[in-house]
Amino acid sequence: MKKVTLKLLGVSLAFGMFFLSSCGGNAHEATEAQVEPTVEEAPVAEEAPVAAIEYNAEQGKALFDAKCKVCHQENGEGVPNAFPPLAKSDYLADKTASIKATIHGLQGEITVNGNKFNSVMAPVPMTDDELFQVMNYVYSSWGNEGSITMEDIATAKM
Ligand code: HEC
Asked: What's the pLDDT tens digit per position in 6-34?
């Protein structure tokens, strides 16, 4: 009879343990909540425009000296009856035509500042960035006033 009572006691103890452990869930949840880290969101920088480029006079001059000077001359005056001037050239008023001349070359009769030229300029291969620099050098040198944008280049390429 004593043996049976002990057995029952054991069973009820086991039950008790089961209940205790299933109710102890609270403590467990609390620890998990503490562990959850608070991630500070880093401020996201404004996205830069795709064609962010600034005119660099030094770079523009270096490109002009390397790719244009031999014909249009250092002072941009060109050579009468051979190479038209870029200095104060009225041809530059048409930005698209001027950029196109550099990209595709130019041939046939043109009139620059009242003087006729009928010769050939071969295309001058350049990246858009180089084109931007050298054309801005032309548009801002020798008394010329003006500038060209990446949009002007895109238009000339259409
Ligand atoms: C090998 C000689 C030569 C080189 C190098 C040369 N050009 Fe020309 N360029 C000419 C000739 C010749 C013409 C006129 C073509 C014609 O008669 O149709 C011309 C015309 C032009 C014109 C239109 C007319 C004017 O005078 O405004 C522009 C703009 C121009 N060139 C820009 C450039 C630029 C910028 C470069 C350098 C990236 C360059 N050229 C390099 C020979 C050259």
From this structure: 454 444 444 444 444 444 445 455 455 55
Interval between CA 72 and ligand 1 midpoint (Å): 7
**108: domain CATH number?**
1.10.760.10
Q: Is the pLDDT of residue 150 over 60?
A: yes
Query: Count of domains in the chain?
Result: 1
Q: Give the structural domain span for 138.
A: 60-157
The reported pTM is 0.75
Nearest to 51 by CA among 143, 126, 120, 153: 153
Ligand 1, atom 10, lies closest to the CA of 121
Neighbour count for residue 114 (Cβ, 10 Å): 6
- Residue 20: which H helix or E strand, with range? helix 2-23
Residues 6+ apart with CB under 8 A from 112: 84, 85, 89, 90, 91
- Whether ligand 1 lies within 6 angstroms of the CB of 136 is answered as no
